Amino acid sequence: MQICVIEDNHMTLNVIKALLQRVRSYGVEAFTDPQEAMARCEATTFDIVLVDYQMAKMNGIECVTHLRNLTEYQYVPIIMLTADGDRDLRVSAVSAGATDFLSKPFDTEELRLRVKNLLSLRQAQLSLADRARHLDDEIAQATRTIIAREQELIWRLALAIETRDGNTGEHISRVATISKLVARHLGMDAEFCRTLYLAAPLHDTGKIGIPDAVLNKEGPLTEEEVAVIQSHTDIGRRILEGGDSILLNMACEVAMTHHEKWDGSGYGQGLSGDDIPISGRIVAIADVFDALCTERPYKNAWAIDDAYAEIQRLSGSHFDPECVMALVAAKPEIEEIYTAPTSDVTAA
What we know:
single chain; 348 residues; alpha/beta; Rossmann fold; 2 domains
């Protein structure tokens, strides 16, 4: 335990220092200049401070006030040494933050015991603080583990849905990444971008409820079959709604609204403009962009520039113009997605 003694009387200072240094577990630094002592306290955190009241450059109350204004000294015990028994002085010292008093001339055994008791309290305080930090670390680690497991489960579920639809996990990985980039260029905070990155892969959750004969039909669909396919947004809503987490709620929004159009001509709920949740507007543009840029059984992959031209042509009708601008702003990063080697789709 580290002790700071501030006393401008050399004889008194030497007595206190010699007394406290008899205890091997104590480290003692002594100062006759209170300003020098304050500078030292700003550089290191002592476990207890003993300060005389009557000093030339700074009195004890000024020292106590200065120490209590330092974050590290909010709870450090401070003993004021004073030969003045004036009640108002003691009230002022307590008001400034003094923990205890010792009257001069002091009894050496009383000084030793008071320092010992206050240092025992200080040790308990430090132990509690250390335990609290340890618990915080354990909670943080447990939270990271839960998040990692949640993320893995989401990707596995999304991959299963994509496989049933005849696609690979590369599509959901690209849609998730493009969605995150668009959100970032829209100025969304890091937590929103991460949540959208994990919610986007679940945009087609409702397709799990579409019959295979319709979902995997080769050739044109009838009007009735188109209606069945379009019902996947409502099925996705029913599967994902009612969750307690922000992530599940956003996933529900995305599943329900990623086929809405800015002009109101889409499907789901027939929403338009800002009535469409921003998560759905972002995933809508990411989903269509990736569909244009990748090969499908019924079409060849478009060049990225051609896909951008098509998205821009549909700005204000199919897509939110601000999302289109964000997609354009993210073009260098998006181009890397289609030229870089395939990555692990479960990585955030």
